[in-house]
């Protein structure tokens, strides 16, 4: 008796491989050329498929762009949640998150560059970053677990961590100029991660212990005039 389902499974496997190949190349092209600089025909030629194959998988160029943007969010969330684990010591949390995320972002440089482009805007229909961002999810998780000093605004901390990590991951030219090698070099990478952990902990440790007013309230406070 023949197994009639085998060709279907092969077709599904091939479809998955094609989708992955399209995402890999689109991630690289979007990061380097921007949304408007990359065409679906160029992507189709690079992947050896017909343009309608891209439309079949993603619907449109913008649908492809959104799929690439959201591609690694779930893995980032999983990594940060795993780093949080049973830890309650804030220094341990920062060390674990920085250590894991820095390595992951470094392995996904094109994606990091693309998400930075998207955050700055490319004149596109607005991508709902708050709906796809791992930052908001992690903020809720850390708040629920009461991670960090009571006075610390976790929202601002996570924006800070994401910005610092992304900047170092994308600063290949600076690293080569200052250290003679890229941050992918194991010794330079280890040194960079130690520095990032120290900087983040120093930023947190130097803040006042008293609770800070909300940003809206702080912005509304009148400037105190100097006594003459």
What does this structure look like?
This protein is mainly α and 228 residues long. The chain has 2 domains: 15-69, Orthogonal Bundle (Arc Repressor Mutant, subunit A); 73-207, Tetracycline Repressor, domain 2 (Orthogonal Bundle), CATH 1.10.357. 72% of the residues lie in helices and 0% in strands. It has 13 helices and no strands. The longest helix has 32 residues, at 6-37. The radius of gyration is 22 Å and the shape is globular. Mean pLDDT is 80; it is low at 206-213 and 215-228.
Tally the structural domains: 2
What's the count of strands? Answer: 0
Q: How far is the N terminus from the C terminus? A: 99 Å
What's the architecture of the largest domain in CATH terms? Orthogonal Bundle
Major sheet attributes: none
Globally, the shape reads: globular
CATH topology of the largest domain: Tetracycline Repressor, domain 2
